[in-house]
Automatic annotation (TrEMBL):
It catalyses: DNA(n) + a 2'-deoxyribonucleoside 5'-triphosphate = DNA(n+1) + diphosphate. CDD domains: AAA, HLD_clamp_pol_III_gamma_tau. NCBIfam families: dnaX_nterm (TIGR02397), PRK05563.1 (NF004046). Residues 37-179 form the AAA+ ATPase domain. Residues 398-408 have a biased composition (Low complexity). Its EC number is 2.7.7.7. Keywords: ATP-binding, DNA replication, DNA-directed DNA polymerase, Metal-binding, Nucleotide-binding, Nucleotidyltransferase, Transferase, Zinc. One of its GO terms (biological process) is DNA-templated DNA replication. This is DNA-directed DNA polymerase. GO terms for molecular function: ATP binding; DNA binding; DNA-directed DNA polymerase activity; metal ion binding. It comes from Planococcus koreensis. Residues 398-418, 534-559 are annotated as: Disordered. GO terms for cellular component: DNA polymerase III complex. Belongs to the DnaX/STICHEL family.
Length: 579
């Protein structure tokens, strides 16, 4: 007969042979003994934790000729045929390769037929999450009310992909990852039965690499046995599993403790050059420092060590570390592990993590080692200032000053809400060259241009109006700072607005945006600097004729209805009659 892998030869044939999962085994065995089995079960959990094996053992116990029993006898014809896979009443269905609704309908059509030689017809559907939505819908009604002689056992590694309507019709059992002790114990049984000598430290390395999966552990064990030949060695196990030796952990930990950056990075480079995965290295470092922390805080719990072996050198190394430092290093490595998931440059992240670990308390150490006299004097001076300020606050001397500063800040705050930088130079240039025909042309066509704009652009101009215009630009005043900021940031708006104005006025006016409050200030400063503001009304009128912008923006002195009419239709089209 051809050679078979360990995980196939040593597949559990009874609940007692299963490793771990005691909560599931006890529940199923009690249901078998007291005839309280149901019509549908859902076995979910990580790969290699015994879901399919438990389904087959449960199927054998249900159909065993000695039933009701808590364990299948594995001696009757029914148990043997199920073990060999030749029992026509126990149907194993792989949903990964038969996910279509047509395959599911074939099962449903045969469900109503009674079992040929057994008490129950049992359907074991592996990787059930791979079924299509149509297949789930076809299975739904049959799963809810199957014939009395039918039992469904669904197995999946991703239960979150199953419809809730399926999950609610099943008894769910969640399989957990196996502990390192369970895996080692099972490997000892396998090797003892096979007559192969073993080293327990080698088995611990394999169990650590298996990450809680028994099938992975037995597959790695098969590889190590094949690679090693007569005797398994630690070096062979490290090479096959991709793990690193404990001595290398010692060297890196001692280099980090001594703050030897060069040695730490050199050892890391050597590991990566040997083919070690940086993501796996981070995980191993976290586990190793966890073991150091465990031995340091609870020396008697050496049986709980996951990666390191309990030996004198390990205990001596643990005594050299401070618990706070180990907590800090584990935190750095954990954050690095999360960041590495989204990057292709994992080695750089690991190198950065080692540097952070080395330099974690460097500034404190540097100051405590000996600071310069000037620095110490400066620190002393700052301490004295802090003491004086605290004394003043206690006496209440600085309260008025603080209140005044707070009031001043509160007054200034509204004027600095917007981060918009006002183009004062451009506005002044428009004011120098402003003409009355240009502003009239803009206001005459303002309503038409507003109607042609996009709704989002027109919304920005609801509270805006042109207040001054030259031959190639105009000043657009906004009531609210936020609208001014949004318009200035929207380049598409400025271009579209300028093009529309050119269509109706014949000139490509470039808009210059300014908030209302800033416009009044800039306008007043311009009038003063150019000597345009005279005391008499005739001079003001003359100034307005020469610089038509000077009367704009004084809406507060006008009737609000007149101002709104002039804004909508233009001053030339509004005539005021006083009663």
């Amino acid at each position: 007969m051809a050679y078979q892998a360990f995980y196939r030869v040593y597949r559990p044939q009874s609940f007692s042979e299963m490793s771990g999962q005691s909560h599931i085994k006890q529940t199923l065995q009690n249901a078998l003994l007291y005839n309280k089995t149901t019509h549908a079960y859902l076995f979910s959990g990580p790969r290699g934790t015994g879901k399919t094996s438990a389904a087959k053992i449960f199927a054998k116990a249900l159909n065993c000729e000695m039933a009701p029993v808590a364990e299948p006898c594995n001696e009757c014809a029914s148990c043997k045929s199920i073990t060999e896979g030749s029992n026509s009443d126990v149907i194993e269905f792989d949903a990964a390769s038969n996910s279509r609704v047509e395959e599911m309908r074939e099962i449903i059509e045969k469900v109503r037929f009674s079992p040929a030689n057994s008490r129950f017809k049992i359907y074991i559907i592996d990787e059930v999450h791979m079924l299509s939505n149509s297949a789930f819908n076809a299975l739904l009604k049959t799963l809810e009310e199957p014939p009395e002689h039918v039992v469904f056992i669904l197995a999946t590694t991703e239960p979150h992909k199953l419809p809730l309507t399926i999950i609610s019709r099943c008894q769910r059992f969640d399989f957990k990852r196996l502990t390192q002790a369970d895996i080692v114990e099972r490997m000892v049984e396998v090797l003892s039965d096979a007559g192969i000598p073993y080293n327990e430290h080698v088995l611990k390395i394999i169990a650590q690499a298996a990450a809680g999966g028994m099938r992975d552990a037995l597959s790695l064990l098969d590889q190590v046995v094949s690679f090693s030949g007569d005797e398994m060695t630690v070096e062979d196990a490290l090479l096959v599993t991709g793990s690193i030796s404990q001595d290398m952990f010692y060297d890196i930990a001692e280099a980090l403790l001594a703050k030897d950056v060069g040695q730490s990075l050199t050892l890391l480079e050597q590991l990566v050059r040997d083919g070690k995965d940086p993501v796996r290295l981070v995980e191993d470092f976290i586990t190793f420092f966890r073991d150091l922390l465990l031995i340091q805080t609870a020396p008697d719990l050496h049986d709980m060590l996951e990666l390191a072996a309990h030996e004198p050198r390990f205990e001596e190394l643990a005594k050299q570390f401070d618990a706070a430092m180990l907590y800090s290093w584990i935190d750095v490595l954990t954050k690095t592990q999360q960041e590495m998931r989204f990057s292709n440059h994992t080695k750089i992240y690991l190198e950065t993590a080692l540097l952070k670990m080395v330099q974690a308390d460097a500034p404190v150490a540097a100051m405590s080692a000996g600071a310069s006299p000037e620095l110490e004097a400066k620190v002393s001076q700052l301490e004295q200032m802090i003491i004086q300020l605290q004394q003043q606050l206690k006496n209440g001397a600085s309260a008025p000053a603080a209140a005044a500063a707070g009031n001043s800040e509160a007054k200034r705050r509204p004027r600095s809400q917007s981060g918009y930088k006002i183009p004062v130079a451009r506005i002044q240039d428009v004011l120098k060259n402003a003409t009355k025909p240009d502003i009239q042309a803009l206001k005459t066509n303002w309503a038409t241009v507003m109607g042609q704009l996009q709704k989002s652009h027109a919304a920005l101009l609801n509270e805006a109006e042109p207040v001054a215009a030259s031959a190639d630009a105009f000043v657009l005043k906004f009531k609210y700072d936020i609208h001014c900021q949004m318009a200035a940031d929207n380049q598409t708006f400025a271009v579209a607005f300028s093009q529309l104005l050119e269509q109706y006025t014949g000139k490509a006016y470039a808009p210059v945006f300014v908030p209302d409050e800033s416009w009044l200030r800039i306008r007043e400063e311009f009038i003063k600097s150019n000597g345009l503001k005279a005391g008499a009304e005739d001079k003001r009128a003359e100034s307005e004729e020469e610089h038509p912008f000077s009367a704009e923006g004084e809406v507060a002195e006008q009737d609000p209805f007149i101002a709104e009419a002039e804004r909508l239709f233009g001053k030339d089209f509004v005539e005021v009659h006083e009663d």
